Amino acid sequence: MSGGKFDLPARKLLVQDVLMLKNKGGHWNYSEDGLSFNVSVLWVQGQVVACKKDKSEVCLQDGDFKINIINCRNIPGGNSWISEGQYVMVVGGVEQDSSGKRAVRAIKMADLSINAVHQSTWNHEVAEIKMLMRENPDMCR
């Protein structure tokens, strides 16, 4: 099926980038660093610094920035493995809650704690994809 939110790859963004997204006519837009593109599905990584008792929602920290990850009880494989201190990746969509705070509605989560390389290279991965997008504007579509 064409035209769906999964037609494009998830956009790798830092949590600080997600917090700067603007909602333009129902579409979340990134417009920084000489780039401008819509974000329907994103990929973030960070450390779980808090989670609800039922693990339906967690707070993810990436550097100095935090964001709530919601819908964790509906991820494939369940959420029983989630715990504070883990370094995780989250693929999901951007939402704004009733208080105006940004959140990510999880579609998929994975524990990346087993290998410290995931955390140490994350900023470089995001910087690299932004560089590639500046060099290849067609990637911003």
Descriptive overview:
The chain is α+β, with helices and mostly antiparallel strands and 141 residues long. The protein is built from two helices and nine strands, in the order βαββββββββα. It has one domain (5-140): OB fold (Dihydrolipoamide Acetyltransferase, E2P) (Beta Barrel). A five-stranded mixed beta barrel has the order 5-6-7-9-8. A three-stranded antiparallel beta sheet has the order 2-3-4. A hairpin with a 5-residue loop joins β8 (87-96) and β9. The radius of gyration is 15 Å and the shape is globular.
How many discrete domains?
Answer: 1
What's the shape?
globular
CATH class: Mainly Beta
* Terminus-to-terminus distance: 18 Å
Number of helices: 2
Strand order of the largest sheet: 5-6-7-9-8
Which fold name corresponds to the CATH topology? OB fold (Dihydrolipoamide Acetyltransferase, E2P)
Which regions have little confidence, pLDDT < 50, spanning 5+ residues? none
Name the CATH homologous superfamily.
Nucleic acid-binding proteins
CATH architecture tag: Beta Barrel
The total count of strands amounts to 9
